[in-house]
Design a protein that fits this description.
The chain is mainly alpha-helical. The chain has three helices and no strands. It has one domain. The longest helix has 34 residues.
């Protein structure tokens, strides 16, 4: 029974880790079949893992403690990295002006002088 409980703990932590990576846009969301960033929900997964860590203190094996601590550290670093990238893209979207479309025609006569090739 102890091994079974141990497996359930690892499965729970791993499922929360995967859900967090989906919300961070690091894994494809299987339900939507696309990747997208949802930082508030990623933070919820991290908060749940932090709650588990604090509530289960003293009741975990060394292996479980290490797995949970490593998972939390990994997710927190990825969260901060994604947050910084998201903030940078928001700033660049606000500061960049309207972009010229590639298919947009240029002024008449600027591409060639109208002369037909020989």
């Amino acid at each position: 029974m102890a091994e079974e409980v141990n497996e359930y703990f690892f499965a729970l932590v791993f499922s929360l880790k995967q859900a967090c990576y989906i919300h961070l846009g690091k894994l494809r969301n299987p339900a939507m079949d696309k990747t997208e960033i949802d930082l508030p929900n990623a933070k919820v997964q991290i908060d749940i893992l932090e709650m588990l860590k604090s509530r289960m203190k003293g009741n975990l094996t060394k292996e479980e403690e290490m797995f949970l601590a490593d998972t939390l550290a990994e997710l927190q670093l990825n969260y901060l990295e994604t947050l910084k990238m998201d903030q940078k893209s928001e700033v660049s979207d606000k500061t960049s002006g309207p972009e010229k479309k590639k298919d947009e025609p240029t002024a008449p006569g600027s591409e060639n002088s109208g002369a037909k090739p020989a």
